[in-house]
Amino acid sequence: METVRRAVKQIAYTPPSQWLFTLSALHLSLTPFLYLASSLYSVAVRLRHHLYRFNILHKHKLPVPVISVGNLTWGGNGKTPMVEFLARSFADYGISPLILTRGYGGADEAKMLERQLQGTSAKIGVGANRVATAATFLERYGYIISDGVFDKFLYEKTNSDRIGVAILDDGMQHLSLWRDLEIVMVNALMPWGNHQLLPLGALREPLTALSRADILVVHHADLVPEKDIDALELTVRKAKKSIPIFFTKMAPIHFFPCRDVSCKMPLRVVENMTVLCLSGIGFADSFVQRIERMGPAYVDHLDFSDHHLFQLKDIEMVQTRLQALESEFAAKPIVVVTEKDYDRAPEVLEHLEHYEVLVLCCRLQFLVHKGSTEGRFKKIVREYLSQWVEVHLLVSLKG
């Protein structure tokens, strides 16, 4: 199954014009089935949007504003880091956020958010039915609406445990919940795949869906040349000319050993070392590039599909690779994993007992580029949420 997943992913990120020259016989044998499935998926996507557009299917509204963080392609777009950034920002200013996540793939992203946001007022609701999950949390904790509360997102603390905002993780295609702000994340390293819809390509929706976005964030913008950023921006503005565009990266902050999450180790611990990057994330290239920039002597990598749950047979494969590296470089290599991989199955990684396993901790960081800054991003978010409060209060007064 993993072999098929890898093959499908390679097809999705290879332009059709290059299929005959770069894909194997296995890959080419899959394309007719993927093409048929992609065509059926396209019909289903259009039908679903029409059902919501004509109110045959209804969108549910929450009594607090909803921020959706989503994307058009699978994996590696920075959705979860953006959710953490927003939740931490709101919590730091006394506005308790509720994160709504579906808990896909063993709920690794939810577990990671719980660990990262521990000690804050952020609440994390996990479940495929995010309307029902939200209702449960709003009933348990209550919610708060007050005139001008979101001005305090930048300036003044309110310190209430009642929920003040909901953050919809991976929300762009979750149409059953009304959102008041749509943030769309794009992976600068591979923004649109081969421009085909799933499963033939990486797109969940056609590029025209970008017209629904209120804010677009280009993630991993530091890892690509300026001409690629310009081309990406041109594509986006064809769909929505006036959309504000921001640029972010994942900023490494420290490592911690797999067996001691409380121990913070400096990034220089991998300098001049042999490193094996082990990952089951949406786009491993960015992870590997970050490690390479830290100055190790040699970097190898083993990449699995997104949300892959490591098992003992995988650990045996990893150990075989580590032994080969140790023999080649006459030194014991270090294993490095992402936080998402650690939180998915920390107990499995402990089977690599003869090797040091380090977890790389990163945080989303805004880049100052083309007039876009973190401050401007927060200002736009505040403006959207303040408008929501004004409309809600006006409706309440009329009622």
UniProtKB/TrEMBL annotation:
Pathway named in the protein's UniProt entry: Glycolipid biosynthesis; lipid IV(A) biosynthesis; lipid IV(A) from (3R)-3-hydroxytetradecanoyl-[acyl-carrier-protein] and UDP-N-acetyl-alpha-D-glucosamine: step 6/6
Superkingdom classification of source: Eukaryota
A Pfam family reported for this protein in Swiss-Prot or TrEMBL: LpxK
Residue ranges crossing the lipid bilayer per the database entry: 20-44
EC number annotated for this UniProt entry: 2.7.1.130
EC supergroup of this enzyme: transferase
Entry-linked SUPFAM superfamilies: P-loop containing nucleoside triphosphate hydrolases
Keywords noted in UniProt: ATP-binding, Kinase, Lipid A biosynthesis, Lipid biosynthesis, Lipid metabolism, Membrane, Nucleotide-binding, Transferase, Transmembrane, Transmembrane helix
NCBIfam families reported for this sequence: lpxK (TIGR00682)
Name of the protein described by the UniProt record: tetraacyldisaccharide 4'-kinase
Phylogenetic classification of the source organism: Eukaryota, Viridiplantae, Streptophyta, Embryophyta, Tracheophyta
